[in-house]
Amino acid sequence: AYGELVQIDGSEHRWFEDRGPPCSLLVFVDDATGRLMQLRFVRSESAFTYFEALALYLEHHGAPVAFYSDKHSVFRVAKKDARGGQGMTQFGRALSELNIEILCANSSQAKGRVERMNRTLQDRLVKELRLAGIDDMEAGNRFLPGFIEHYNARFAIVPARPDDLHRPLNLAPDRLRDVLCKREQRYVGSQLTFSFERQRIMLEETEVTRGLAGRYVETYAYADGRLDVRWKGHSLPYQMFDKDQRVTHAAITENKRLGDVLAYIKERQEQQTQPAVKTNSEKNGYKPRGRKPGKRTDFMNDPVVIARREQALSRLDAAE
What is the pLDDT of residues 91-123, one digit of tens each? Predict the structure, then answer.
C-alpha cells in the first residue's frame, strides 16, 4: 500500500556536470507505487541533511509506516557496544519519537527500487538540469518539485491495495524542531563545565545550575548552529570557549562524508592567508619587555667606550 514502505538513499554524483561542484541527492521512493516522494540536493549525507529532507516529507505527505535504507551510519550504529544512544543513531531516535520504523537492507540489491531510481535520475535528471541551465543546489532544489510531479504523472503505478497508510503528524513546529535535531547527554563537572564537540561549555551559576555538578544535562544541537542546554526541559544559560575548530589530524572519515569534510577544510584554508605557525615563546605567552635590567652588554654604542677608542686611534696616529 501507498505509504507502507518508503525506500531512502543518497546518491553522490556530478548532478550539474561541469557547471557546478558534485553533491548528493537524497531520494525518497514509495515501494508500492514507485512514486518519487522527496528529492533534495545536499552537500553530503548527514543526520542534519536527512532531518531537513524528512521535515519536508512529513509536511507534504505525513508519516509513513516505515523507511527502508542501507547501513549508512546515519541510520545504523555499527558497533553494538557503542556508548550512549541506546543503540540508536540520531536519525533513528527521531524516527522512534515520530513512531516511524527504520529497516536496514542487508545488500544494495535488497533496496533495488531506490538503487534503480538513482541510476534513472543520474541519466534523466542530469539532462533536465542541463536544459534548464541550473548549476547549483539552491536553484536545483527549486526545480525539483516540478520534476517530481511530471515524473510521477508518467511513471507511477497503481498499488496492490488502494489504502494510503500515511498518518497525519499532529506536532507543533517547536516540538518537531526539538525532535529533528542532535540530542546528547553530557556530564557536568564540579566547575559546572562539560565538553561538546571539542568545545568547552561553562554553565552560568544560578539557583538551578548550582546543584547540577555531577549530573547529566541534555544538549540540543540544531542545523543552523544553535546549541540549547537543558535540564528537565528548562533551558540553561552558558558560555562557550574554544570556538575555533578544525578537522582532527588523521581523523577516521567515512567515505560518504568525505566530500563534506574536504569542503569544510577548503573553506578553513581559504580563510587563512598564511599558516598560523607560532614559535615556542608565542605559545608560552612570552612578550618582550625591552632592555633587561642588570649589567649592559651592548658596549659598542657606549659613549665611554667610543671616546676611549678614539683616544687610542689618536695615539696610534701620533706614534706613526
Answer: 888 998 999 998 887 666 666 788 899 999 999
Q: Which three cell numbers stand for residue 122?
A: 543520474
Strands 227-231, 216-221: pairing is antiparallel
Alpha-carbon distance of 87 to 47, in angstroms, equals: 16
Q: Go through the domains of the chain in sequence order and give each one's CATH number.
A: 5-155 (3.30.420.10), 181-241 (no CATH)
Burial profile 215-250: b = 16 or more Cβ within 10 angstroms, e = fewer? eebebbbebeeebebebeeeebebeeeeeeeeeeee
- Model pLDDT, residue 292: 56
Which amino acid does the sequence have at 217? V
Question: For 158-171, how does the pLDDT look when each residue is reduced to its tens digit (9 = 90+)?
Answer: 999 999 999 998 88
Answer whether 73's CB lies under 8 Å from 46's CB.
no
- Cβ atoms of residues 23 and 139 within 8 Å: no
User: How many helices (H) and strands (E) are present in the chain, helices listed first?
Assistant: 8, 12
Choose between 269 and 146: higher pLDDT. Answer: 146
- What is the pTM for the complete model shown? 0.71
The position carrying cell 488502494 is 162
